[in-house]
Amino acid sequence: MILHGLLSKDEVHLLRSVRLFNENLDYNLLAGQPQNNWNELQKLICKLIWLVKESDPFVVSLNNLNDNTVSVFELQVLYAIESFRCGREKTTIEVLNWWLPSVKVDKALCLLRAINYILDEIEIETLQPDRLIRYI
């Protein structure tokens, strides 16, 4: 699905961070950004994706780093993060329930809280996630 042009600059950076799950973690995501924050963000996102992959390896579908298309799973990750950041925890839990058994949802929420904190620290803009749901 080609949606890359419909994502904001910050969403593209976040998408690249999600895709780094399969890449070298030394990759410099954004020049000029404090590397510590991005490294920590990358670790947390990797933990979230690993948690999903542990539960259902077939749901994790990540495109190559510079691919102009976006997988449904990648859209779901963006949607879950953006929903959580907008205070829609119930919506986020619904997405997590698609991926995870109920005993792992709390761990995923803890990871999302930490991801949210770092995104606030590096001042990543959060758009309304509703526009993403149309493509999922």
Summarize the structure.
Helix content is 60%, strand content 0%.
Describe this structure in words.
This protein has 136 residues and is mainly alpha-helical. Helix content is 60%, strand content 0%. The longest helix has 21 residues, at 35-55. The protein contains six helices and no strands. The protein is globular, with a radius of gyration of 14 Å.
Question: Which SSEs are present, and which pair or pack?
Answer:
Layout: H1 9-19, H2 35-55, H3 72-85, H4 89-99, H5 102-121, H6 130-133
Straight-line N-to-C gap:
10 Å
Q: What is the string of helix and strand elements?
A: HHHHHH
What is the overall shape?
A: globular
Rg over alpha carbons:
14 Å
Mean pLDDT: 83
Helix content percent band:
55-70%
Share in β-strands: under 5%
The class by helix and strand makeup works out as mainly alpha
Low-confidence stretches: 25-32
List key phrases describing it.
single chain; 136 residues; 6 helices
